Recover the amino acids of this structure.
């Protein structure tokens, strides 16, 4: 570019036909056309690679699971024993544990996640700070006046940072901080309400409750981010109309904003469910790895991902196909949930555009 | 619906009629006669507003409550990991059970090498796919298939990336290796890089692209000289976010790179085809050990890992701020 001397002016049709060699504009040479041709093919190739990768993932895991499928068949899905020595394998407790922990985490995660999304999208934070600034009369000051906006952004980033902390660190924290902290309370609840199936065992260390606690923290940022986007994209005129009819702020939120954004929020919740199903480390460290089919929140249990993480490194050649089979089950569950979530979000986005 | 509302509507209509058909004297004496101003006043004692205020407080508390774990984790990391911090941690090898001291220099190196490897694999593929997606016309079937696959891959369980790399690489090459770990991580990085690149390139003003094509540039020249340089901050943000995520991943490394107590070399040369230590796997392994020294090392490693991840995240965010300023 630097070799172009001065500026080239085009004064009339006769000058255009001259085309000096150093003209800034000129049609592509044949080499450039060839480069362009190959580069376009390269881009398309790489793009196709992504689709191919998903197919490859399914085929690879599926093919490695075939021997185990032949040997154990469908009974693998409802067997309750996992005993490599006798070669009896069943993953019903793991399937149950995966769904149970994920659904519980989803319950807490979406409750807090949607609350945080409402808090962020309603601008409570900036509103409160603006009021405080007004008390001091500096709400339009060049520095202080920007404070509400900045703190709002900081809060949003802090919630996103929750997702940035690696899951193994949450596992470590859960193991050495959360479990000792909730153990006395859990054991007290067990001694008082032990007949209730949710509290039918005591918490002797790792168990479902600490795992669910950490899991809900990990999926909260996903729910908050997607719900916030959905709430913000609700047309402002709907909010104004509700206020104009005399609705209070929460009548507006519950009656207008949340129903309008419900598709997007639901998509976010489904995606978070997919995350929770596949989350490995925090569960492998906190859920206790016990092959149990239980309702109790304080009992140890196991999940598919935790089973893979714990058994794979020391699995023998006979056990590997069985683990691949378990991986295939996990893959099927998460793919279905994720595709459903992606579709719901796509529909929500196209519907919002249509408005 | 109409039937439900009728009594109320009738009442309102009759009040309205009474209000409109007052005698002129009445209207002159009291222009707002019959309007109950007290009922219109905003009062926090009214059930509707009290409910609204209460929910506002609840939501505020819940949002703050959601942030408690973040600070609890950070404080514990600084408290328990910070005490142990020393230069020996970064240069020494992990200790054997019951041995004192030691560090995790090889794990830091292993994490950097495997994440670097994954970045080298994914950045060209991811960014060029992003170029393709951003340039593809609206109804392109391949583009929507790629976009959908990338979205599905974002939620792909990390342990399954490990299972895949185990089946495809560890079994094929006959051993755990840094290469297998890097490939497992790249599967997790790819969707983030594709989706952020696409949105960064799509945000480049159309007039810049049109000007470039108008000057006779080919699509390739436009991509390299106009689109990519302009979208660079956004693309770098995506790369940094993907790197930060990959650095903290444990599950895909558990049985692809495994772990090692030694430096990543054989006979004085760097060897990527052997079991490799990483910070994340070190934390997992050491947290389950009954030895105090190992548990303390796990906390220190967690602190180092979180600092690395947070710095990478912050760098990524600073890039995205540049993009906004443009």
């Amino acid at each position: 570019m630097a070799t172009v001397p001065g500026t080239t002016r085009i004064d009339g049709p006769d000058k255009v036909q001259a085309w000096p060699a150093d003209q800034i504009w000129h049609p592509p040479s044949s080499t450039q056309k060839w480069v362009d041709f190959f580069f376009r093919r390269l881009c398309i190739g790489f793009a196709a690679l992504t689709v191919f990768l998903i197919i490859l993932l399914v085929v690879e895991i599926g093919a490695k699971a075939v021997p185990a499928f032949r040997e154990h068949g469908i009974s693998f899905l409802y067997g309750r024993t996992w005993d490599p020595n006798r070669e009896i394998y069943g993953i019903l407790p793991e399937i149950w544990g995966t769904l149970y922990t994920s659904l519980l985490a989803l319950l807490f995660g979406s409750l807090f996640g949607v609350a945080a999304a409402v808090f962020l999208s309603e601008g409570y934070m900036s509103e409160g700070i603006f009021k405080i600034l007004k008390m001091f009369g500096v709400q339009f000051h060049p520095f202080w006046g920007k404070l509400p906006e900045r703190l709002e952004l900081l809060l949003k980033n802090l919630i996103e940072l929750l997702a940035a902390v690696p899951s193994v660190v949450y596992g470590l924290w859960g193991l050495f901080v959360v479990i000792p902290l909730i153990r006395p309370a859990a054991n007290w609840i067990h001694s008082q309400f032990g007949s209730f199936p949710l509290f039918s065992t005591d918490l002797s260390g790792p168990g479902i409750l600490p795992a669910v606690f950490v899991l809900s923290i990990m999926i909260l940022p996903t729910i908050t981010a997607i719900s916030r986007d959905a709430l913000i994209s609700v047309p402002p005129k709907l909010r104004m109309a509700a206020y104009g009819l005399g609705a209070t702020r929460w009548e507006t939120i519950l009656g207008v904003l949340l129903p309008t954004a419900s598709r997007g929020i639901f998509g976010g919740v489904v995606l978070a469910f997919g995350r929770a199903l596949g989350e490995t480390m925090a569960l492998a460290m906190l859920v206790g790895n016990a092959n149990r089919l239980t309702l109790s929140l304080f009992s140890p249990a196991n999940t598919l991902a935790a089973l893979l993480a714990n058994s794979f490194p020391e699995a023998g050649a006979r056990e590997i196909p069985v683990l691949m089979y378990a991986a295939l089950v996990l893959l099927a569950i998460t793919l279905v949930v994720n595709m459903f979530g992606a579709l719901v979000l796509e529909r929500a986005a196209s519907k919002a555009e249509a408005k | 619906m109409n039937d439900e509302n009728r009594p109320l509507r009738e009442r309102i209509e009759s009040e309205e009629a009474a209000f409109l058909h007052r005698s002129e004297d009445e209207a002159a004496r009291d222009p707002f006669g019959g309007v109950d101003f007290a009922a219109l006043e905003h009062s926090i004692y009214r059930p509707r507003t009290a409910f609204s205020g209460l929910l506002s407080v609840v939501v505020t508390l819940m949002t703050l409550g959601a942030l408690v774990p973040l600070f609890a984790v950070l404080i514990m990391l600084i408290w328990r990991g910070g005490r142990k911090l020393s230069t020996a941690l970064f240069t020494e090898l992990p200790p054997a059970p019951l041995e004192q001291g030691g560090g995790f220099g090889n794990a830091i190196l292993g994490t950097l090498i495997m994440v670097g490897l994954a970045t080298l694999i994914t950045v060209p593929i991811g960014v060029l796919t992003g170029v393709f997606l951003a340039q593809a016309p609206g109804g392109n079937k391949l583009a929507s298939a790629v976009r959908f696959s990338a979205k599905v891959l974002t939620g792909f369980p990390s342990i399954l990336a490990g299972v895949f790399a185990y089946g495809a690489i560890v079994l094929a090459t006959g051993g755990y290796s840094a290469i297998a770990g890097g490939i497992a991580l790249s599967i997790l990085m790819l969707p983030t890089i594709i989706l952020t690149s696409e949105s960064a390139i799509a945000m480049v003003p159309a007039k810049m692209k049109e000007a470039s094509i108008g000057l006779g540039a080919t699509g390739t020249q436009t991509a390299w000289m106009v689109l990519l340089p302009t979208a660079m901050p956004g693309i770098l943000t995506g790369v940094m976010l993907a790197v930060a995520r990959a650095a903290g991943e444990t599950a895909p490394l558990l049985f692809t790179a495994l772990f090692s107590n030694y430096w990543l070399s054989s006979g004085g040369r760097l060897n990527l085809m052997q079991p490799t230590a990483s910070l994340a796997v070190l934390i997992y392994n050491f947290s389950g050990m009954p030895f105090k020294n190992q548990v303390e090392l796990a906390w220190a490693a967690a602190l180092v890992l979180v600092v690395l991840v947070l710095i990478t995240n912050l760098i990524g965010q600073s890039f995205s701020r540049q993009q906004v300023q443009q």
About this structure: Chain B touches chain A through 89 residues (CB under 8 Å). Chain B is about 75% helix and 0% strand. The longest strand of chain B covers residues 265-266.
